[in-house]
Amino acid sequence: xxxxxxxxxxxxxxxxxxxxxxxxxxxxxxxRYQCATLLKSKEEVLILASIVEKETALEKERPHIAAVxxxxxxxxxxxxxxxxxxxxxxxxxxxxxxxxxxxxxxxxPSPYNTYLIQELPPGPICHPGKASLEAVxxxxxxxxLFFVADGxxxxxxxxxxxxxxxxxxxxxxx
Length: 174
Known about the structure:
Elements: H1 11-33, H2 42-55, H3 62-75, H4 82-93, H5 130-137, E1 146-149, E2 155-158, H6 161-173
Antiparallel strand pairs: 1-2
């Protein structure tokens, strides 16, 4: 999103402006779509939208990514999303995460580590844009449960773990 501010304006004023805009957008979208979501509150929508925001930069993929996460939540599966692990490390280390995630990193004890929890983390991992909020409240209708990067900035989606493993192996070859 874009915000107007003036040189010398306090950080708190800018954050307040962002929060006010987010609250307004989220309330408008919640009123429009709340009956269609399994999420119980605007806060849960915000948390999942923040994860969707970090998973893809492609606006057209956001409803599909949101659908995968919502399908996983319906089934009681862990979201298993790398951005939440990265965020956990940034909280713990109090600095940006600037290396590649390893398998051992996926074991970091944190309420934000969605490899270890089977629910939403306790708060958002970033400030999501309107497209991610809309994607969570109006997801694609699909049975997909998995996705993996395709090497072009997008993702390949699959319904079964077997398909996902094949897609993952294909990505490793690239």
